[in-house]
Design goal:
globular, TIM Barrel, alpha/beta, 8 strands, 10 helices, eight-stranded parallel beta sheet
Length: about 350
């Protein structure tokens, strides 16, 4: 992870006029953190807290609400292991309360935390405590499934098994999640999309949000294979889209793991470059899912290693410039509002 406050001057090298500045937006995917907890001794340059979020959300686009997504922060240090992720929800609730002191700024309107779905039905107690401590903001969990056998590809922070989505205990936990009216955010790699499709078919009552296009990889053994991977990705995304309980987040392609290496450049990517290089992922997913099951996301500050906030939202607006007003409203606001009950 890049030192966020060391790239801000670099990001400022690309400045763009804000397109459609009055369009209301919900950003359904961002993180917050003091910094990495391992090793100890956090440097301020890793920080991404309320003022850092607001610096981005107030950079020109009309961001009204946001949704925090699990990232392993501020877990409880004591007590049973399964309850330690509650600390992250408590951490974000306090930041959301700080945000309420300035209603002119973007408000944190929803929280997706973490609970170990491998607990099966006993995860109910963890989810109940998340809901209690979430004070009306808690909406569901993300139990990341990203796993690859190559050591050059980092596995998810939740230490998944190779086919975690197909584990009986995992699906039992998700059945409990669904029964409590909560949603499931996913994070995995492109070669795991088929597993998610099988899970979605097994649990049609579960609302699933598919993050970051299913993580098409471009590093390690996948470097130089983008076209080959894209062909298979298209088939897998189409099959996943046939599951009506699955929604798709459009974004998160500027991470180093995706292999574009924009974070290594002398000048960051522009919105035109994003549209040119990555637009086919967005447009194909939109074709499969439709605007009523898609939402744009920032994935900040992770994607901030490569692009600035105002640039990525300009790219999204350029991608759908010929779409109808209803479709745009879905993509920038209403789908997220519906799915996360904002």
């Amino acid at each position: 992870m890049a030192k966020i406050h060391e790239v801000e001057g670099w990001l400022d090298l690309v400045q763009e006029e804000i397109l459609e500045p009055d369009m209301e937006i919900i950003d359904p995917h961002h993180h917050l953190w003091h910094g990495p907890q391992d090793p100890p001794g956090v440097k301020g340059s890793y920080r991404y807290l309320l003022q850092d979020l607001w610096r981005d959300t107030s950079s020109g686009h009309n961001i009204k609400k946001t949704v925090f997504i699990d990232c392993g922060q501020e877990y409880r240090l004591e007590g049973p292991e399964e309850f330690k992720p509650i600390g992250e929800t408590e951490f974000v609730v306090q930041i959301a309360k700080q945000a309420q002191e300035d209603s002119s700024q973007a408000q944190i309107a929803g929280i997706i935390g973490h609970a170990n779905m491998m607990l099966g039905t006993s995860v109910k107690e963890v989810l109940e405590l998340h809901a209690e401590k979430g004070e009306g903001l808690f909406r569901g969990i993300r139990h990341a499934g990203g796993w690859d056998e190559d050591e050059r590809v980092k596995n998810a922070h939740s230490h998944p098994t190779p086919h975690i989505y197909l584990e009986d205990k995992f699906q039992e936990g998700l059945q409990m999640l669904a029964s409590m009216g909560m949603v499931f955010d996913t994070w995995h790699y492109h070669n795991q999309i088929r597993d998610l499709t099988e899970l979605a078919k097994n649990l049609p009552e579960l609302v699933i949000i598919h993050d970051h296009f299913g993580g098409p990889l471009g590093i390690g053994p996948y470097k130089g294979k983008r076209d080959e991977i894209f062909d298979q990705w298209q088939e897998d995304i189409y099959e996943l889209s046939q599951c009506g309980n699955v929604y798709s987040k459009l974004g998160g392609l500027a991470m180093p793991v995706n292999g574009w290496d924009w974070h290594k450049r002398d000048v960051p990517a522009s919105s035109d470059e994003i549209v040119s290089e990555q637009g086919k992922y967005y447009l194909y997913t939109l074709k499969c899912f439709g605007s009523e099951r898609c939402m744009f996301e920032s994935n900040f500050p992770v994607d901030k290693q490569s692009i600035s906030y105002h640039v990525i939202w300009n790219a999204y607006k350029k991608l759908v410039k010929n779409f109808s007003d209803i479709e745009k409203s879905n993509l920038f606001y209403k789908t997220a509002e519906k799915v996360y009950k904002l």
